[in-house]
């Protein structure tokens, strides 16, 4: 039997039992669609979270801080030593202090980070409105800090606020003192970052370091290539500093998300197994209904191999079409869920994101798996059909 003849005969099921065939395909489609929907949720959550904190520069950056030790200080001398380590191409220190922000007769307490513009790039921080500062009297502020002074993020860019911040520093006697910076001239908000938990204000580092402060909370250290990160990390740790990397967090998060995807996929497999059982039942019923037809085909010279091939083609075709239908159902379900979630996020002042994403390779795996499931469910009926005695099959009513 030629391939074209086998395909032609396989499509007869749509003419003889169209409703049963379509319901079987729909059952497989629902199972495949459920798997796709749940696994796509896992991928979407992973991409939505990790894409916010990862950039090409941030993956090459190390976070260096003195830890809890009182004997280790991250000062200008330390920064100079770190910058001289081979393969270190950039450093971006951070000074932190408590701060008060005021505008329109409203005052709130927050955390001030004095940084260079490169800090945002090395941290993977992005603005949702405006841009990062480039001048002395410019700041970038978090959404939580804006709530303290009753400003909407989209309307805050270009507005002016007053800052007072309290910067600790070590004097000549080794005693910590607090320097109060209270600027009469207002700061201009040039950018807004999303952080609904912490009231954070980013100011230019020069605004604070010019006041004689020589003690940093941490510094970002960019390495020229990921191959040198471990070597640079070890050299900095030998100096007594605590070192971490965003890459470590990403690797741990990726492992966690893979487990989540597997768990979600297993839940979807339950529906897929049920639909596969339904498909097996359909193929068994088709065998009983076509027993007489099989006897006629065998009596005119059709081989056992061709009979087996015919049934396998039919089951694989139903499985493949079920996979196509499942991808369509899963995609529609994901788009509807994305629309509802983004609508709710917009109403509550959140940011729109895509919670459901499906990589192309996974869609191809879904299609291949659906055809394979069709093959597996068709093996037993196909073998039974091939073993039928032609004379007994002709007598079957």
UniProtKB/TrEMBL annotation:
GO terms for cellular component: plasma membrane. The keyword DNA damage does not apply. GO terms for molecular function: transmembrane transporter activity. Pfam families: FtsX, MacB_PCD. Residues 266-390 form the ABC3 transporter permease C-terminal domain. Residues 21-236 form the MacB-like periplasmic core domain. Its main location: membrane. It is found in: Cell membrane. It comes from the Bacteria. The chain crosses the membrane at residues 21-45, 262-289, 310-340, 360-380. Keywords: Cell membrane, Membrane, Transmembrane, Transmembrane helix. It is a multi-pass membrane protein. Belongs to the ABC-4 integral membrane protein family. This is ABC3 transporter permease protein domain-containing protein.
